[in-house]
Amino acid sequence: MAQLSDDCFAFGGPMMSVDEAVGLITARVNAIADIETVALVDADGRVLARDIAAPLPLPPFTNSAVDGYAVRDADLPQQEERALPLDGRIQAGGSAQAPIKPGHTARIFTGAPMPPEAGTVFMQEDVRIDDAGNIVLPAGLKRGANVRPAGEDIPEGHLALRAGQRLLPQHVALTAAFGLTRLDVIRRIRVAVFSTGDELASPGEPRAPSQLYDSNRFMLMAMLRRLGCEVSDLGILRDERASLADGLKQVAGSHDLILTTGGVSTGEEDHVKAAVESIGSLVLWRMAIKPGRPVAMGIIDGTPLIGLPGNPVASFVTFVHVVRPTVLALAGGLPEPLLPIPIRAAFSYGKKIGRREYVRATLRRGEDGALEAVKFPREGAGLLSSLVETDGLVELGEDIKRVEPGESVGFLSYADLL
Ligand code: AMP
Ligand code: MG
């Protein structure tokens, strides 16, 4: 498990910026080093454990990029078109029977190996066939046209994928193109997830009139799975220090991260802080982020704990900014900073200087065709509809005080967050 010292996340300042928080976490968390081998079909989303250098060039041999006619360099028409008799036929997966004779052209198909004596291919759409059955090639085509030289994509030996790369389908495709069948990846990060709160009932269980169904736990587990984690669903802990402490203590040794939601505000019924302090150490980070309130960071038996706020939107936003980089750091992944895309605001909004705020927004096309962000009409941090009915978050940096319609703002699509 990730062994961390007790004061690992201690922080002296009153308010921490989001960048400071991410910097602290990624510097302190020890990456898991356990490696396992998976088949290519199971590699999507996993973190690569070792660099991969190209074991062969891509493409592996020089080939035709089009269906057409191959010619020798000496036979390339210069000023005027030329009619060349046909000599040979080279299919994809095949090879030429004999070299193309000087003054001749060979039929060739996309992906077929170029005969060494030919350097150029004419697209079939650009030629015509004369009455004698010769292929009439237009003048002016450059030497080497429509040919894909061996290694033009990736030369042999090139560092093609780096350890720490979280694999996407295109990365898996590259390893398949290299002929690999299995990949060494970091084992999945094990995360224990709890909700806390006497007002919560699990879906499927009876719900008292004063209770609501626990939605955060399912949101957080889904987000964790998208980040490649192995998730233990540990249900709901009651708002009571001793049972909270018991529940957390039980999972500390066997997981890489403990994630809780709720109970980290400073109300009398927010017991997570006291529970963690009774069995480990905990700091409340007052992050300068809205929605967000305090986020708890702690260590129990060397296992890091993150306590997210209970309001669903605050939980979502702090997951993105605190849990996501922690999970990536634990998994030994290369940093994947979130880069907001500039977009036009179609709303006005006032905010506090010194705090980063996230505005839930929907994308639409303005009258001029440009993309613009429309703010969700209500702001409560408890509104699940505000996450469901929008496309992403407009990020308003610490220095911004006001946004007016027409101004450029940064947009993070939900699709890019996980
Ligand atoms: P807390 O952070 O525990 O003070 O909770 C803040 C608000 O979020 C309260 O209205 C809770 O009912 C709500 N809440 C807390 N945990 C959850 C959860 N797991 N699912 C849905 N709502 C929650
Ligand atoms: Mg609570």
Automatic annotation (TrEMBL):
Biological pathway: Cofactor biosynthesis; molybdopterin biosynthesis
Role summary: Catalyzes the insertion of molybdate into adenylated molybdopterin with the concomitant release of AMP.
Entries under SUPFAM superfamilies matching the protein: MoeA C-terminal domain-like, MoeA N-terminal region -like, Molybdenum cofactor biosynthesis proteins
SMART domains tied to this protein: MoCF_biosynth
Organism annotation: Bradyrhizobium cosmicum
Annotated GO biological process: Mo-molybdopterin cofactor biosynthetic process
Lineage, highest ranks first: Bacteria, Pseudomonadati, Pseudomonadota, Alphaproteobacteria, Hyphomicrobiales
Protein name per UniProt: Molybdopterin molybdenumtransferase
Catalytic activity: adenylyl-molybdopterin + molybdate = Mo-molybdopterin + AMP + H(+)
Name of the top EC class for this enzyme: transferase
Annotated InterPro entries: MoaB/Mog-like_dom_sf, MoaB/Mog_dom, MoeA-like, MoeA_C_domain_IV, MoeA_C_domain_IV_sf, MoeA_linker/N, MoeA_linker/N_sf
Cofactor(s) it depends on: Mg(2+)
Domain spans labelled MoaB/Mog: 192-329
